[in-house]
Amino acid sequence: MSGMIDWGTAVQTGARLVRPGPQVSPHEARAVVMELRELSAMAEGHVREFTRMDVPPSTQPATVVDRPGWIKANVEGFRVVLEPLVDQLSQRRTVPTGPVGIAADIVGPRVTGMQMGAILAYMASRVLGQYELFLPPDPSGDAPTGRLTLVAPNIVHVEQELSVDQRDFRLWVCLHEETHRAQFTAVPWLRAYVQEQMTQFLLASDISPTELFDRIKDAAEAVADAVRGGESSLIDAIQTPAQREILNRLTAVMTLVEGHGDFVMDAVGPEVVPSVAQIRAKFSSRRGGGSKVDKTMRRLLGIDLKMKQYAEGSRFVRRVHTEIGMAGFNRVWTSPETLPTMAEISDPSLWIRRVGLPSLNGEVLSLEKPNGTES
C-alpha cells in the first residue's frame, strides 16, 4: 500500500500556489541572510543569560529559507511524524481489493497531498520562523535533533509593512525562535513528550479505522499543527474522553512554550532591542487585522487560537516570573508532572501552589499576592 499522503505532490502544489515574497535585489537578499544568521547567534547568548537555562551551544547557524524552502522543510517534518503513525493505522484499515482499491490508493494520496500543499502555501507567507522539532534522521548521528529556521521574505515583508527598525525587528524575531531552541535542547524530555502526546491522540480514537483514516487525510495539516498549538480542525476528530485529555495536555504545553517565547522576546530588554515597545504594539495590532478571507483562514486553520495561546502563555510566564522569579519559573521544566495544566495557565497561582518553592525551614511557600492581581 502506498502512503496516505503524496509528499511530492504536497511540495509541488505548495510551491506552485505560494505567493512571491517582496522584491529585493540579489545583493539585498544576501545581506538579509547574513544578518539573520548573525542575529540568531547573538540571540542565543541573550536567551541563555536571561532564561538561565542550561542551553547547549548551537552547532550550526540558523537556516534561512524562502517560502518554497519553508514548505519543503515542513513537509519533511510532517513525514517524520506521520509516516510511523500511518504504518500503525494501516494495520487497522480495511482496504477494498481489485481496481477500486488500487485507484483509491493512488488517487487518495495525491488529493491529500494537494490539500496539504494548498494549506502550506497559505501558511508559508505568514510564518516568520520556527524551531523544527522533527527532522529526518541523520545516519551519521552528527546533526542536531532540531533546526532553527527563519523565513527571510516574510520577515522583510512584515518589517516593511510595520515601518519598524529592521535590525531590532530581526533580532526580536530571533529571540523568540531561539527561546524555542533553548526549550527543546535544554529540556531533554520535552521533544519526546510532545511527540508522544501527538501519537497517543491519533491512536486513541474509537471510530472505525476507515473513518479515522479519512479524517486524518482530510486534516493532514491539522495533525501537524498540533505541534504549533492549533486545535480548531482537530476538535472535530475528538471522540473519546481520553482524546480530550490528551489534547488538553498538548495544548497546555504548546501554550507554555509559545508564551515563554513571547515573554522572552519582550523581556530581554530595551538595551538589546531599543524599539521593542513600538514593535510589540504594531505587531500585536497586525495580528488582529487582515481581510475577511484572511480572518476566515486563520480561524479554520487554528491560527487565531494560536494567537490566543501566545497571549495566555505569556501572561502565565510573566505572572510566575514576577511572583517567584526565574529560578522558580524554571521548575516548570523539571518533568512532565511540573508542566502547567490549562486551568493553571488561566490561574497561575494554582501552579505556584501546586509546585511551590521550599522555604528555609522546609515549608512550602505560596507567593501569591494578596489581591491576586497580575503585574
TrEMBL record:
Decide whether keyword Hydrolase is in the record. yes
Q: Does the keyword Protease apply?
A: yes
Name the UniProt record assigns to this protein: Zinc-dependent metalloprotease
Record the organism: Actinocorallia aurantiaca
Q: What GO terms are given for molecular function?
A: metallopeptidase activity
Instruction: Give the record's keywords alphabetically.
Output: Hydrolase, Metalloprotease, Protease
Q: Which InterPro entries match?
A: CHP03883_F420-assoc, Zinicin_2, Zinicin_2_N
**Its domain of life?**
Bacteria
